[in-house]
Please model this.
Amino acid sequence: MYTKDGENYFVVDSHVHFWDGSPANQANRYGKGFIECFYDYHRNLSPEEWVWSLEKFSKYSEETLINDLFSEGYVDRAIFQPTYLTDFYVNGFNTTEQDGAVAERHPGQLIVNGSFDPRDGELGLERLELLAQRWNLKGVKLYTAEWKGESKGWKLSDPWAYRYLEKCEQLGIKNIHVHKGPTIYPLNRDAFDVADVDEAATTFPNLRFIIEHCGLPRLEDFCWIATQEPNVYGGLAVAMPFIHSRPRYFAQVIGELLYWLDENRLTFASDYAIWHPKWLIEKFVDLQIPEDMQAEYGVLTPDIKRKILGLNAAKLYDLAVPAEVTNQVASDGAEQTAGAVDSTPKIPA
Amino acid sequence: MTASAQDSLAMRAWETLGTVLDPELDEPITDLGFVTALNVRSGAGGKDVHVLLRLPTYFCAPNFAYLMVADAHDALRDLPGVATVRIELADHFAAAEINAGVASEAGFGDTFPGEATDELAELRLTFRRKAHLACIERACRDLIGRGWQVDALADTRLGDLPGSPARDSLMRRRAELGLPAGPDEPLFVDDNGDPVLAEQVPARLRFARSVRVSMEGNAGFCRGLLRTRYGTTEEGAR
Model:
């Protein structure tokens, strides 16, 4: 928990990794290029004192992860989002099993998400079921832009994707995290196109679609569909670190997101180890919309920050929130019980 | 040809590269720092132009990368006095395929046989439309700053816009999209050039602002990543 100026914040980091991008695990030049690309994100947007060496960044220890998130970083619960990349890395970059082993050694702190690829057909459906049983999955992380043999990616609206989403419903996997963000794969058309989310979200009203990186660099397309689909959420991984290097831009992004969605459908994330949660959380709690933008975007209240930092994700993953935090959310208790999924989106006039 | 004539061709080549835009960011590749070298040499039958390009990340989307390399190639090829053009993208996961594909004018689909299927016209159109909408927003923002009411924007004509780089930019986008750009044409039009109804202007303007924020933000991110990757400023080969 993080406390500042008498305000308590329960922190859920909705997007963390425990990866191995080290040379020993790199299968080819793509693996090398991938971790170097991540490293440039890391050193471009982190405050100088938080920049690691490439060696440490490529492969950090379990102890480092636990310390950074939970001792130094104020995080109460963190959610592992797997990134397999088995074509780039010998043992995969960051698989469900690797995450799960760490989570089991630190009970109650880490949530393990799985993944599926609808192009795996029937066999993949069985694998998903086993994965769900083994790790008690409440969520999955999906990469629609991933190439696989002849296929140049897939869409959430594909018939096979629907079968997997039906399976998720049966298995109690309600949180569908979809990577629509900065390029990491060879791509054909526009990998950031979020139109398929729109269709799937309408077809599966009981699932929640958390769009990681809130569609950046297509913020507007994401906002447009999220306005119309109440079960679409914005994950703030990659958007967050701009709070340091370009605070006015970050204020605009948050302002746009709060305008088109609402404060109940945004979730904080560090994308650790790309960025460290400690400085992100401190700066976010201290943030206010600059005065000259307040006429357009309004102001950020402690309640808005509390929801974004943890309460929204806590609802998605049924996490217990300590009373010293819930007690402070006095201004809109009714909305808290109504739940974010049922909140009414703002439809533009 | 004299040395000065060669220099002037190099200058014209640089200016020509300045007309090549990053389709997503809507800014010239020369301003973004993507051009690292421009060499002009005498060859058989004219000048040989060689351009070196770089991008902010190893995994920048290959479709956008292809468009920039191909646009640079096509723009320079049409320059008088130029015999051959070679555009070389460096430090990109698909550099070899893209360079070879553009050199042989294969098209995107044939450059990645079995991998990519579409040519990129549709992608380009999408981003030209976004750029156009962002330009409309900048023009409206400027007018509102000068005291115009949002209600009046539906009746605003292009001729009402004061001269400015933002206005020039809007006119270029109109021309690219093949939309009418005369002084009596309405400012606030949709992607097809049809006027936006007065009651729809506020919502459309609001969306246009998101488009602008998004594009400007991306451009800033890409500039920052380029700086981090190469540890240099964005002056390029100037």
The beta strands of chain B are 21-22, 27-28, 35-43, 46-53, 82-89. The interface with chain A takes residues 24, 56-63, 93-94, 112, 114-118, 122-123, 126, 130, 202-203, 206-207, 209-211, 213-214, 216-218, 220-221, 224-225, 227-229 of chain B (CB under 8 Å).
